[in-house]
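Recall from the previous lesson that a structure prediction takes nothing but the amino acid sequence as input. Here we apply that procedure to Glutathione S-transferase from Pseudomonas brassicacearum. The sequence below is the only information supplied.
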Amino acid sequence: MSAPSMTLYHNSLSPFVRKVMVLLHETGQTGRVALQDCVLTPVNPDLSLNEDNPLGKIPALRLADGTVIHDSRVILDYLDHQHVGNPLIPREGSARWRRLTLASVADGIMDASVLVRYELVLRDPQKHWDEYLDAQRDKIRRGLALLEKDAIAELTSHFDVAAISVACALGYIDLRHPDLEWREANPQLAAWYFEVSQRPSMLATMPKV
Ligand code: BEZ
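The prediction returns the following tokens.
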């Protein structure tokens, strides 16, 4: 096998990075990407990442020609154009907008979950902003409720951009916010997640604390 031609700024705990890794596994492209691990928080940046992505966010992907692309949505779209199997992001039609909208719900759940995590671990406990934490947790609960009510059949039908994004969001909640106990309120989503968690792509990308 030839050497990897691309480099991914990577941290196994980031749900946004995990989406990219799952897509690489699902599309048989893991050998094309070298991983550059970075440890960062909003107040402890990775300086070499900042040179490639001024926003200092992971994932970012350096392509063979040196171009750097981000964020995770752009990277998924790029990588989905680099394999010959069925696209994991529908190329056109109403399916495209629906699947991307479900993926956007999942991304919003991840955003809120990471913000809660940062507030809890980076800020002095005496300064925790409870209204803000509650608002972010409410956002997570509303997003999950929508998926439970409207999207189970769609998630079950294809393991594509929507399903990958939701699975990675749930994996991150389990990792960082087990106190949310999301399964009780969302039993169909829990059953779906139990199934997809067994996929080789999900097992290979389990966050390592
Ligand atoms: C975490 O440790 O929870 C984390 C790490 C990197 C990006 C986002 C979250």
